[in-house]
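Weekly puzzle thread! Below is a chain. First person to post its structure in token form gets bragging rights.
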Amino acid sequence: MTFVQGTTTDRFDGLRERLETSIANGKDVGASIAVIHKGELVCDLWGGYRDAAMTSPWERDTLVNVWSTTKTMTFLVALMLYDRGELDFDEKVSTYWPEFASHGKGEIEVRHLMNHSAGLPGFSDAIQSEDLADWDRCVQDLAEQTPWWDDRSLSGYHALTQGYLIGEVVRRVTGATIGQFFKSEVADVLGADFYIGLPESEEHRVSLVIPPPQGIGAQSEPNSIGYRTFNSPQLEANVAHNRWWRAAEIPAANGHGNAKSVALIQQIITNNGHAEGHRFFSEKTGDKIFQVQTSGLDQVLEFNVSFGLGYGLASSDVPLGPRGCYWGGYGGSIIIMDQDVDLTVAYMMNKMEFELLGDTRGPGIALAAAMAALS
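Winning reply:
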């Protein structure tokens, strides 16, 4: 088999065979894997095809919509602003965004936006899919909503809205959009090939996602918070085939990159605040990531999730160490950071499975990488 290109160290070479096999048996069409261990890029692999017809090869610099893996970039921006003293996670959102206080939201704190407990997991019926490209309309819609629940100890995954909520606070604090801030303060600093709002100049490198057989929320109970979330607005995966989607800033869902760029950026978390000779936040700030904010059955995801400041932590359903965190994207992408093992593992792909936060492919790669790191 010659589906896969790239390099690994000897210890991590088993990941090449894993990706070769996954492409050969059809579980993957095109994908990339990157692993950083103890500050070294020990695995940088890519292979397969950019398209469902398997006519165009996945290249070193191919980009793909990584869905909710994008959220990890917004968490990083918020941590940086906290470290600079420009943002306080325990402060009311309305301190930065006064209009947000309406309709019973005056006591909601910034940390509630980070851990999905703000009670705003969906938009009103007025918002349709293409309205997601209209930032002002989306944030006004959220500011005018009444929370869907009142107990801030309960999470309910803010699948699309989280990016607008965090992003608007960032805009109010910095004067820049979150995509602009991320580009200048993170991606450009590291030379990382990741975009929240894809420039037209990069369109030629995009691999369009291959939608799963059924859409998000297809199994949710009607009238449940999950069902309401996934239908406000209702999105099909092929929305990512539209230029308007890729061009907009939809910071919870439309980031474009590949495994190497995601790992390059999120190793900041593994390193507790620094990467490639640059310090992004202090270790004291980094320690806050691992303080559990909410834990238990998420009202939207319907499995047990523990949230720190944005990132998912170990739970009864997610076996991670005490200094490990993660997040994944609709259809399969995943990024895992483990400070105890000094390991960052990223997997980005175009063939989507049904699961909202990844499927067995990514965790299998992460487990294999962890075993290699410990060998």
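Puzzle host: Confirmed. Bonus trivia for everyone else. The mean pLDDT is 96.
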